[in-house]
Write a structure and sequence with these properties.
Shape: globular
Strand content: 15-25%
Number of strands: 5
Structural class: alpha+beta
Length: about 140
Amino acid sequence: MDSLTVALDGLVDRVPGAEFAVVLSPDGLLLARSRAVSDEVAEQLSSVVSGLYALGQAATRVCATGTLRQVVMQMSRAFVFIATTRGGAILTVRMGGDAEVGDMAYEVALFAAQAERNLPVYLEPARVATGGDSGADHWGP
């Protein structure tokens, strides 16, 4: 078992109500998962989280509000927290609907901030010079 899997299991064990955790690359490839995540769930989560992450990034561009840090999704019986690390990886944690949301938000942010030692760094794609301003990077007013 690698250190990232151990760290994810530790996060799930430490926080009351946490059910499972996964870490994805920015393009949605599964990097690690806690012990309670089946292959099927890991595959489905990779797709869903990639889409939510892309929507969150688009919202930050449209609103001109900096970089995406967290997406929190509330359902009737669960919460899903999606957080980005400084290195570009995506942490996702599911917790029961009656768990303490503030504690989980804190733990997810703390884990994401400390995860760099266990994760590769993903670089932003280089921007290609087009010889003029196409407006492609301008989303604000």
